[in-house]
Amino acid sequence: MTPAGDKEKRPIQEDAQQEDDSKSPQLPNNTGSIFPPQPQHSPSLCTGRNFKYYKDDQLSSLTFTDRNEGILTQAKSKFAEYADQFKKTFVEFKQANVDHVHTLTKEDSNGRRHQQQFDTVVDTFGLCSCNDPEQALISLADACKPSEKSRILLLEHGRSHYEWLNRILDTNVDKHVRRWGCWWNRDLMELFEREKVKEKLEIVKVYRWHLGTTCYIVAKPKSSSSSSS
């Protein structure tokens, strides 16, 4: 039990945030209904534990990136287990930092290279380990196509609703960073209040679990929502 006054005051966007500590975090299986088969990008790939959650009939192409070449090599090997699942999908692996995914390029039919953009960008537990999470969010926004349907799906972890838990995270963060390279006490929602991020992104929905430390955030590029705001 914790005192009621120990719960953080936090801004709630009308019709934007929902919180439910009673359920485990699961990405809703509705991407296909929002987006017919279209290009998707997954930065901070890690070793490919999420491959099974991607549906071939919801994708036209799938680009996996990670900053670590060794991790990419492991992920490619693991992907062999799922190759039959993606026979109709163009799949590629590229080395890139999550805060520079907007610099990815691809070659067109005429041999010219141009920026590679996506209908959906999915990041799972990447903001806790990158050097500049603010720039990462901006980069994810810039990697999206300029469309009302473009979305950024973030499954992340960071600070809690509760100060007693935040004190534990803060006290042990240095040890945790040294062991795992993860800043587990980052204030994820505060990132969306920063001016440079607010210029680029708008939150659509937020779900939080595990005393607020785990977040599933659906966002969209600001340029695609200006007409509806």
From TrEMBL:
Residues 24-33 have a biased composition (Polar residues). Gene3D superfamilies: Vaccinia Virus protein VP39. GO terms for molecular function: methyltransferase activity. Coiled coil: none annotated. Residues 1-46 are annotated as: Disordered. It comes from the Eukaryota. Residues 1-13 have a biased composition (Basic and acidic residues). This is Uncharacterized protein. It comes from Lichtheimia ornata. The lineage of its organism: Eukaryota, Fungi, Fungi incertae sedis, Mucoromycota, Mucoromycotina.
